[in-house]
Amino acid sequence: SPYGSLLSSLLFSLLLVFSRNSFIASKPDPSKPNMLRVGLAFGSTAVLWALLFKQHRTDVHEYKTRNGLE
Amino acid sequence: MGLLPDEAKVLPPPGIVNRNSVWFGLCGWATAMLHNSLNRRPALKAGLHRQALFITVGWFIGYHLTKFENYKYATLDRDMSEYIRLHPEEFPDKGNSTWKSSRIRVLISVLRFSLY
To answer: Which family does it belong to (chain A) (predicted)?
Structure first.
């Protein structure tokens, strides 16, 4: 089937990530960071700060409007 | 707003730096450092992306928690003021407070404490 090889490669990569089989396992190497994970972590950090500042801005504006301060 | 009704927007919003944000941010940082230590990495110098993310998640949760807390205290204060307004005989201007009014005040302060 055309999706057979895709499925088997997906299963193999899952097996690599989630197994401790000593034939294919390796210790995590700090000198070779997983840049995708690092990028995602910093990216979601930036997104969360942006969301926080936006929410705060909205809250301050709502408060001022409802109390007739501006 | 998920947890708060519309009337909560009348209250002044907490600052970006607020008590719960600082505390949860510090807890997030401690978690990241503990994660480093348990994986035999230098606690402060390793996994900076993880430290930043955990601090940020804690800070974010803390901000919304402070908003929720402020709203809960405001509703309790409003109910207490309303009760005092409707039962002025129990809160005389001079002299000792009545047993009933001091009981009400204790009950409300216990309710406030039970929020923790």
So the answer is: Belongs to the complex I NDUFC1 subunit family.
